[in-house]
Design brief:
Radius of gyration: 19 Å
Order of helices and strands: HHHHHHHHHHHHHH
Largest sheet: none
Number of domains: 1
CATH class: Mainly Alpha
CATH architecture: Up-down Bundle
Length: about 300
């Protein structure tokens, strides 16, 4: 459990530092927006290109990845269904679906895969799925939804939206390099690694800044969507991963344990970046990220105890 505690401690300390920055107004009135834009436009694309260009695309066709994809889809679909019945609106439904399904596979997934599961490579399929499939679709829909009412958009514009989004472009470029089998020389890759290392800290600092002056999580008007997203993310998704892995794919032992643990990871901070960039349900997303991160620790401990 050392890797789990360390990962959560790192996240909490950087968020706390962001809160101090927000409280002291050290970065000015636009500090959060600048950090978010840097993360969205430069740092996160660089990080994704670095990760995906060195990945193994063959893992996209593995049974554990299918279990992960189906469990993510189940959580997202259930949130959307409730949102439609409750009439929460399209943006809340879309961002809530991401909060319910999008796994923190980077700064929490990697240490947990290393120290708890014993193999950091186990998180690679989740990273590939989210960055190659989920992220391009999500940012394309958010970009389309951010257009002014009545604005006419051609079919070509819609189809090429991912090509104008830095995160989608970086993901596709990274996969293209991986598929080609080429190795990017170190002098060319090091700038991507250096800039990419800003991504997670920038997002966490921006999240911490946003907490200053905000109500305690769970007390905002978005309490219903927040609670639903956290429950789906921390409880339903790992339960769905266990059921799908056991009954449909007949996984057992360490492989089943791995997919359940990865499904139980909290909502990724990237979702807050997307919400901030497009002004979509930012309060709900911020609270869902925080509360799911807090709730995940006891859930992971419980899963480990049940596994024995």
């Amino acid at each position: 459990m050392g890797g789990v505690i360390t990962g959560f401690g790192v996240i909490a300390s950087i968020i706390a530092a962001g809160y101090v920055l927000g409280r002291s107004d050290a970065l000015g009135a636009n500090g959060r927006e600048v950090l978010t834009r840097v993360a969205f436009s430069v740092a996160t694309p660089a990080l994704l290109f670095t990760i995906l260009s060195g990945s193994d695309p063959s893992v996209l066709f593995s049974a554990p990845l299918a279990v992960t994809a189906l469990s993510m889809a189940a959580a997202a679909a259930l949130f959307v269904a409730v949102a439609v019945v409750r009439r929460w609106g399209a943006r809340t439904a879309g961002m809530g679906a991401l909060c319910s399904a999008y796994v923190n596979a980077g700064n929490l997934g990697i240490p947990i895969a290393s120290y708890v599961l014993g193999d950091a490579a186990l998180v690679a399929p989740v990273l590939l799925l989210q960055q190659l499939v989920v992220t391009p679709i999500a940012v394309t829909l958010l970009d389309a939804g951010s257009r002014s009412p009545g604005e006419r958009v051609g079919v070509l514009t819609v189809l090429t939206t991912p090509l104008r989004n830095p995160i989608a472009v970086a993901s596709l470029a990274g996969v293209a390099v991986a598929l080609s089998g080429l190795t990017v020389p170190d002098p060319l890759m090091q700038p991507f690694e250096l800039v990419g290392s800003m991504s997670v800290p920038a997002v966490l600092l921006a999240l911490g800044i946003s907490l200053h002056g905000s109500p305690l999580p769970g007390r905002s008007p978005e309490r219903g969507p927040v609670v639903l997203a956290v429950v789906l993310k921390t409880l339903l998704q790992p339960a769905a991963a266990w059921a799908i892995g056991t009954w449909l794919f007949h996984l057992d032992g360490e492989m089943l344990f791995a997919v359940v643990v990865l499904a139980a990871l909290p909502t990724a901070q990237n979702v807050f970046t997307y919400a901030s960039r497009y002004g979509a349900a930012t309060t709900m997303v911020r609270e869902a990220v925080l509360l799911s991160t807090i709730a995940t620790l006891p859930v992971l401990v419980g899963i480990a105890l049940l596994h024995g």
